[in-house]
Amino acid sequence: MFSMSRKFLLAGVLLAALTAPLCFVMADSLGQSHIFFVDKSFDEQGRGQVTASLKIVANNGYFYVEDSWYNNLTTEQKTAVDYDLQKLANEFDNNIYPRITAIYGSEWKPGIDNDNKITILLHDIKKGAAGYFRTQDEAPLIQAADSNEREMVFLNTNGLASNSIKSYLAHEFSHLITYNQKDRLRGVTEDVWLNEARADYTPTILGYNDIYQGSYLEQRVRNFINNSRDPMMEWLNTEGDYGALDIFTYYLVEKYGVAILAESLKTNLVGVDSLNSFLRKYGYSKTFSQIFSDWTIAIYLNDCSLGADYCFTKPELAVLKVAPFLILAPSASLTKLGLVYQEKPWAGYWYRIMGGQGKLDLKLAIEAGVALKVSFVLCSQTGACRVDALPLDVNNQAEIIFDNFSRDYASLTLIPVILWPLTPPEDFSPVHNLSINLQNFSSGDEVARVEQLQKQLNELLQKIAQVKALLENLSNQQALKITCQTSFDRSMALGDKGGNVKCLQTFLAGQGSDIYPAGLVSGFYGSLTQQAVVRFQAKYASEILTPLGLTAPTGRVGLATLAKIKSLSLLK
After folding, report:
1. Is it the case that residue 31 has pLDDT exceeding 60?
2. Domain span at residue 418?
3. ∠ CA(393), CA(244), CA(6), 5° rounding?
């Protein structure tokens, strides 16, 4: 199980939520039943609401459990659940709440519900998800029709017996804090990857990873081993996203202290800018980009003898080394080898070159304008290694010539990193083609023969790529058509993903370039989609905004906006 966090970043909701409600709200009482809105995409049965009863009133939280799930348990199972829930409540009061708020700051208190306690709802969530957080619960119902109007997080009932449940609660609670520190107090929204980095580091702050075996950290190390090349800023809410992010976060905190996470949370900057601000403030010479590049070297070498930047000191991570791609340099019988690798920004890639005969010429290139840094590790036959950087010309090309590579060296490992853009993508990260060409100097006839074969291979690969793209486009169009015909009935906001968002983007694109000039149908509710919704709401303000007493567009698709969309389209 792993923790997932939904980001419903409500531009229109934020202003209304900045002040606490004026009404007095009675505190929840033990045993009371309440109907809560939940996320359909996470709920095991796809429900939008569940009924739950208050099982524990802790000093800092109300612990609710879904009734239908709890009532189906045996007497013995209920006893075990009650015990585990009380243990979790005690841990929240005595450890999680005081220690995390001391470092990251407080959640919104007394908050939209005018209550100092947060609400923790345990309901039947899909396997593979440990919990989530919804920012629309911080908004009034007039702005978010499915708001619970509480400071609230959600956990999976099926994870209650796990020792990791306390880590999951700490993770989701940190998202609640981030919403208050960034969105509400400073009017900015944190980049998802950094929001998740802080949240996933909370178990370490709380000491839950001190014993490595069976720990939260061990889960994340396994995630990293299975997907070490995951782009850190491309957040798809999958288990693989957490591996590389967590290992990098440990590296960042090991070198610069937990203060880099805490202080960057309490500024009006977000993402890379907030981290660079911290580094400048305390006189560090390196930028975030340089630190990330150093991390890609450290996770490959993990050798402190080559420099403190190239290793971990935590024992469990000091033995972790990524497995590189292996490239066998051409021999005299194959004089030239051309390879093309697809790379994404903010991801680690490692290419170890070995073998070859005689004089070896290595050429590397990527599209001009891409912010590429290429580090390399050159190891001799005796095992001694050195770290250096490969200089690139103005065209993003580089070349190294070895007089006798196999005689003088055991291996050369290239570690290229694309350190751009500094902000996360709205959807999938762009893909760039990195070419690596290796050549031995042999007879002209052999060189010509290899070049001809390479040309034929490249032509074939281009044709395959064209056919693949055509098939994928046809499949996506058919899937989108079916989805939009079946359901289009939920509120949407910045940060949402899925078929409903694609249907929305398809509709907006059909409204013309004055509404949605980008015309992007990606399934991700990014800033371009939000701006299109703002234009649409402004165009039909009398039907969407005026009935709600609003004077400015919100950029969020609520009930009034949905009603107008349905009146203009076939998305019923």
Report:
1. yes
2. 325-442
3. 115
- Beta-strand ranges (E) seen in 236-312 are none
Tens digit of each residue's pLDDT (9 = 90 or more) over 412-458: 999 999 999 998 887 788 999 999 999 886 545 555 665 777 787 88
| Mean of the per-residue pLDDT values of the chain | 89
Q: Give the global pTM.
A: 0.74
Question: Are 271 and 194 in contact, with CB atoms under 8 Å apart?
Answer: yes
CB 295 within 8 Å of CB 213: no
Question: Tokens 């345990």 sit at which residue?
Answer: 122
Evaluate whether residue 508 is within a structural domain: yes
Distance of CA 563 to the CA centre of its chain: 32
Distance of alpha carbon 470 from alpha carbon 472, whole angstroms: 5
Q: What pLDDT, on the 0 to 100 scale, is given for residue 488?
A: 64
Same domain, 428 and 512: no
The residue length of the chain stands at 572
- The 3-state secondary structure of 63-121 reads EEEEHHHHHCCCHHHHHHHHHHHHHHHHHHHHHHHHHHHHHHCCCCCCCCCCCCCEEEE
Distant-in-sequence, close-in-space partners of 469: CB < 8 Å, separation ≥ 6: none
CATH number, position 333: 2.60.120.380
Cβ atoms of residues 201 and 249 within 8 Å: yes
